[in-house]
Amino acid sequence: MTTRLLLISDTHVPQRARRLPDQLWQAVDEADLVLHAGDWVDLPLFDELTERSTALLGVYGNNDGAGLRAVLPEIMHESIEGIRFAMIHETGPAAGRERRMDAVFPDTDVLVFGHSHIPWDTVSPGGMRLLNPGSPTDRRRQLAHTYLTAVAENGQLSDVTLVPITTD
């Protein structure tokens, strides 16, 4: 079986944007599973994504209050098409991240994280893939607002694509 993934983080609605960009909503509609790595900020966005997504997994971030923390874990572990995923909002400084995450998530094939708003795609010394989709609403010093898409199939992650937001 094939699962089309959409990876997002740091949506910050309504702090940084009133709503998610239309392009991202189209990606939500096309995905089999949405992974949100925290900093939703507001429970109504969680409710809207839950309603609109085929399936949704998420964690809370440092800007998420009690309402989101009541319905989301800090760390998520899930097997998707035979791939061991973990998700957390914050992984600490970029320097040494891969080695630190190998120690924290030893039985993980793919780690999805957020917090920095900086897209990230590396492989740790232990072979774990680390993915940060950036932010679709708050690009900070990046050239564009971004999200990631990927395909999970038969124990393999493929077609990992950083997608810039080109429409609002």
From TrEMBL:
Its cofactor is a divalent metal cation. Keywords: Metal-binding. It is an enzyme of class 3 (hydrolase). The lineage of its organism: Bacteria, Bacillati, Actinomycetota, Actinomycetes, Micrococcales. Its EC number is 3.1.4.-. Residues 4-152 form the Calcineurin-like phosphoesterase domain. Belongs to the metallophosphoesterase superfamily. YfcE family. InterPro entries: Calcineurin-like_PHP_lpxH (IPR024654), Metallo-depent_PP-like (IPR029052), Phosphodiesterase_MJ0936/Vps29 (IPR000979). GO terms for molecular function: hydrolase activity; metal ion binding. This is Phosphoesterase. Gene3D superfamilies: 3.60.21.10.
